[in-house]
């Protein structure tokens, strides 16, 4: 199991969001090659603007571990995190964040520029499945415009 495998798992979550009429973003939290948290956008379903994939996956991981810190964990997310999610990731002290596609419109960079809002020990990298992630988001918004 590698970054591609876990990003494919995040994409499965994103497809659930798509099927539910939510912006198709999915996330999984992994520690020791095991998924300990999953999430997909549920903003409309829960009527909660904070119900982003990352937030839900983090909450599941915290509950699984019984801890508020994820220093040994990796978050795989299909789209670059927004500023709100970046703040939650900062406080989680997550060890690594891998995202599939950049989000020039809504990512944390819109507010912070190139300055990282993540914990100093958190590594951030763009990983696999960029084209799949972008295609899913584009298909969602194209369907909404019809």
Textual characterization of the structure:
The protein is of the alpha/beta class and 146 residues long. The chain contains six helices and five strands; from the N terminus they run αββααβαβαβα. The chain has a five-stranded mixed β-sheet with strand order 2-1-3-4-5. α5 (109-112) links the parallel β4 (96-101) and β5. α1 packs parallel to α6 (130-145). It is globular.
Overview features:
single chain; globular; alpha/beta
Strand content: 15-25%
C-alpha-based Rg, rounded = 14 Å
| Mean pLDDT over the residues | 95
Structural class by sheet pairing and helices: alpha/beta
Task: Produce the secondary structure layout.
Layout: H1 3-19, E1 26-31, E2 34-40, H2 43-46, H3 53-65, E3 74-79, H4 83-92, E4 96-101, H5 109-112, E5 123-126, H6 130-145
Parallel strand pairs: 3-4, 4-5
Antiparallel strand pairs: 1-2, 1-3
Helix pairs in contact: 1-6
Summarize the structure.
With 146 residues, the protein is α/β, with parallel strands linked by helices.
């Amino acid at each position: 199991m590698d970054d591609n495998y876990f990003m494919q798992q995040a994409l499965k979550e994103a497809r659930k969001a798509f099927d539910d009429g939510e912006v198709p973003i999915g996330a999984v939290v992994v520690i020791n090659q095991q998924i300990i948290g999953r999430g997909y956008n549920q903003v409309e379903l829960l009527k909660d603007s904070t119900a982003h994939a990352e937030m839900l996956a983090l909450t599941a991981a915290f509950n699984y571990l019984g801890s508020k810190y994820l220093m040994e964990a990796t978050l795989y997310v299909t789209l670059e995190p927004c500023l709100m999610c970046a703040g939650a990731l900062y406080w989680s002290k997550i060890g690594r964040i891998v995202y599939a596609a950049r989000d020039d419109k809504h990512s944390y960079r819109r507010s912070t520029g190139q300055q990282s809002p993540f914990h100093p020990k958190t590594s951030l990298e763009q990983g696999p499945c960029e084209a799949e992630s972008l295609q899913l988001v584009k298909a969602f918004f194209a369907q909404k415009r019809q």
